[in-house]
Amino acid sequence: LADAQVDYLRVLLEAKRRQPADDVYSGLVQAADESGQLSEAELVSMAHLLMMSGFETTMNMIGNALVTLL
Question: Which residues cross the membrane (predicted)?
């Protein structure tokens, strides 16, 4: 599963590099490219952290809301 996520993020980041949009991943790619201080592996790692932190927060909020309603 982790390999599939990394592959997905590499494709996503390359797409954002070619066609930037007004989103977090495009901003991350742009900042990394301008500074030149992040390797591709570090860029993918940061994107993965963003993706998983958003997922976990949402998952916990839904769980807490259900517990509150019960």
Answer: none
